[in-house]
Amino acid sequence: MKIFELIGISILVFLILLLEWRKLYPNQKKEKIILVTLTGISLLVAILLLYFPEIPGPTQMISSLFFPLGRMLK
């Protein structure tokens, strides 16, 4: 049943991309590249979270990086 959720997420991302694309002028090539890149990364993260919901978030990564530093400062 996750295939339907995947299709729904993909349709929503495509609609968002289409609506934002129309707002850009034809000569804004860098902005279009950034829009497609960020939207693609967002789609990839959404798909990863759909299939692997236990992926640690960014706050867990930051705390694991700085936890030893906090112990050294005490």
Can you walk through the features of this model?
The protein is mainly alpha-helical and 74 residues long. It has one domain (2-73). The protein is built from 3 helices and no strands. The protein has helices at residues 2-23, 29-51, 58-73. The protein is flat and about 55 Å long. The model has no long low-confidence stretch (mean pLDDT 91).
Please give the count of helices. 3
Low-confidence stretches: none
- First-residue to last-residue Cα separation: 50 Å
Q: How many structural units, i.e. domains?
A: 1
H/E element order: HHH
| Major sheet attributes | none
Query: Could you tell me the number of beta strands?
Result: 0
Oligomer: single chain
Radius of gyration: 18 Å
Percentage of residues assigned to helices: over 70%
β-sheet strand percentage: under 5%
Name the average pLDDT. 91
Helix/strand-derived class? mainly alpha
Approximate shape: flat
Keywords: Membrane, Transmembrane, Transmembrane helix
